[in-house]
Amino acid sequence: MEMENGTTGKALCPLVENYKYILLPLTYSSVFVLGLLLNGAMLWLSCCRARDWTCTTIYLVNLAVADLLYLFSLPLLIINYILQDTWPFGELLCKLVRFLFYANLYGSVLLLTCISVHRFLGVCYPIRSLPFRTRRRAAAGAATSWVLVFLQLLPTSSYARTGLINNHTVCYDMTSPENLSSYFPYGMALTASGFLFPFLIILVCYSLMIRSLTRCTGDTNPTSSAARAKSIRTILLVCGLFAVCLLPFHVTRSIYLFIRVYRVADCQLLQRWSLLYKIWRPLVSLNSCINPLLYFLSGQTNRARLALDLTLPWRSLRPFPLGLALVPWLKRLIPPLCTLLSGSCRGP
Question: What are the tens digits of pLDDT across the range 329-339?
């Protein structure tokens, strides 16, 4: 049981959060193992096996780097929740873990926005957009995304901190209770600039893409039909990522933060939204496992599947029994994933 203090210290609500000590270690452990395998494989294939990088590959490699940086912080969170929300690693690592979470979250959103704009230009303006769809511009777009994320998250280094609750050290999810009033406008601005505006751009791009693709349904060219099908699957995957992982997280986080600041005396309401938010918080990390699936839509599916089946050094996983146990499952999973997502994989 934890106590949620109001920003003025006038209200004190006991929150029953025993579910965290089971749900969060299990979720983070699963995301860590699966995300490490998928992103590591995608990064290795892109860097060591791919001959020429496309614009999409540049964005996806940056996505993999963002995912891996976050995944490497998950063991600290797993230990924290196994110890029943006790943080033994000091304030510096607390700040780093919170920074990496949001850097992965909003870095992924901006990079997915770049991919969406790139595909929108390719589908709707294939000829006129050629000067803008170059690897140099893709690298510049990825670099700009990282700079924007860094600037957005600078206040996190100030707000993220450790504190004492029930005589044990915790790493606050957002900030300490006494700083919630000043954190609230920053949190809302971060949600708007890091999620809402990019999400609207993606919706506009994909709406125009779908309109353009449906106008071409009379084209019987097999190549054009395959390209349209791949574009539609990409749209569905990205929209599914936002619908399942990102949108519920931001909605529950915003409402929970509002209640913590302005309705903290309503303990029942606080308990309800605390539960919803803290269930969706680990689920948003699933984007680290979903992002690599975009690789199978980038036109390199056959080579990726062949390399994963034949040349990826699975033997290096022997020191890690859990990772090794997942290898046969992954080998069975990858071919149907390829077939589902790109329709271009064949059996060996």
Answer: 555 554 554 44
Q: What is the CATH number of the domain that holds 121?
A: 1.20.1070.10
Q: Please check the confidence at residue 202 and state whether its pLDDT lies above 80.
A: yes
Q: Count up the domains in the chain and report the number.
A: 1
Residue 34 within any structural domain of the chain: yes
Cα separation values, 277 from 26, 271, 274, Å: 17, 10, 5
118-155 pLDDT, tens digit each: 888 888 888 888 888 889 999 999 999 999 999 999 99
* Cα→Cα distances 36→4, 63, 301, 323, Å: 34, 13, 19, 9
Is 338 among the domain residues?
no
Q: Could you list the residue range(s) of the whole structural domain that residue 220 is in?
A: 2-299
CA distance to 114, 309, 323, per residue, from 320 (Å) = 36, 19, 5
Do 85 and 2 touch, CB atoms closer than 8 A? yes
Q: Do the Cβ atoms of 312 and 41 come closer than 8 Å? A: yes
- For 192-201, the pLDDT digits (tens) are 999 999 999 9
Query: What span, in angstroms and rounded, lies between the C-alpha atoms of 203 and 206?
Result: 5
pTM value?
A: 0.80
